Amino acid sequence: MTEIATVAAADLGASSGRVMLARVGRDLLDLSELHRFGNEPVRVGGTLHWDVLALYRGVLDGLRAAGRAAPGGLDGIGIDSWAVDYGLLDATGALIGNPVGYRDERTEGVMARVHAQLDPARLYAVTGLQNLPFNTIYQLVAARGTPAAAAAHRMLLMPDLLAYWLTGEQGAELTNASTTGLLDATTGDWSTELITALDLDRDLFAPVRQPGERIGTLRPDVAETTGLKPSVPVLAVGSHDTASAVVGVPADGDRFAYISCGTWSLVGLELPAPVLTEAGRQAGFTNEAGVDGTVRYLRNVMGLWLVQESLRVWSAQGRPDDLAALLDEAARQPAFVSVVDPDDPVFLPPGDMPARIADFCRRTGQPAPASPAALVRCIVESLALAHARTVRRARELADRDVEAVHLVGGGARNELLCQLTADACGLPVVAGPVEATALGNALVQARAIGAIDGSLADLRGLLRRHTPTRRYLPSTDPGPAAWTGLQARLYR
Q: Which UniProt keywords apply (predicted)?
């Protein structure tokens, strides 16, 4: 049994990736960032691709840095990433082109075509998945008939693809596979019914792995490139970044809601079993697999993508794009002037987000934000409102009491968002850790290696002892009635 595990956690988000080094023991939890790299999609021939080779190079560079920072060697490597996107391999195991990004337009209209063939209620009864136009099921149908699809022998989701390049072993980690719309939520395996109905090749789908399983050891060429020992194991973690982030929620007990807040806000509850009701389907809730047999009962909210795209546009225009300064100014703006629905499809693709928000406000009879600070205030209030609406609906649908909301990820740094979320929910918001995803990744590795043991509750106890958080209490000004009125105005 290893007393202290030294592991590398590769955490890939939709806008950046990083490799973190963690040292984990029964009374030790230390995390440091070693290497950060960008992740910007590239449009080629009208299609939006991920530069997956650049991402892989970033992971290799990070692992090389991890080897230098851990002279005693690494005990494990784990990879998590965003969901739904994949690479296709040919019969030799070679990648067939760069993966297409989920914001690409190729899936427009595909969901309606699939639903004309498969009853949406039946899809939900099997998968428990929120119907989003970019889910893997719709991407695969959109690609059907293309030369790439004709040559494909295996589909690997993004973290599984990178793990394959590190080890030579193919598989499909459960938590990410559960986001595809093709995994049976009850059995935890690929749905033969759906794959057959859509005329997809069953061999495309790799065997399902559980979080904590050993995938393999480093290929000799990878060991040489990184300077690591070939015996270093690559371990399956909660490879959907939200699954790792939920492991990294420092909750005490089970009466909590979580918001994993970054480019997306994943808002929901941790449950022992899926909720496959028609009411849940109509409300857009999804049942995704978590670590240790748990279910992430959640709804996707567009998240800080609206802020990120606005900052990108302002930067290109040569205008100030200092988020900290904008948030300070936004906190002094008048409340409840204008709000938007973050989940309106108009906000999904890249583009001129400030112009889209202004147009939404005008279309709904509200003033368009008059300044960048006013627009940031509009976005943050809109997100807080969406968070509260989603938490309340999850509680109703799952019949689960909630005493606190844990907000983790990059959004935990956003004091205005945390306070307004507490106000809108009428519940305490516990903010942090910012690095919940990397911490959850590292904890699952450390337990698999044997440096720690116990349940998710035990892992979270270690988190509470070693990670700082900040508690935001709901304010009485303007009070719950004002938020209720705001919601009625937006979602009427």
A: ATP-binding, Carbohydrate metabolism, Kinase, Nucleotide-binding, Rhamnose metabolism, Transferase, Xylose metabolism
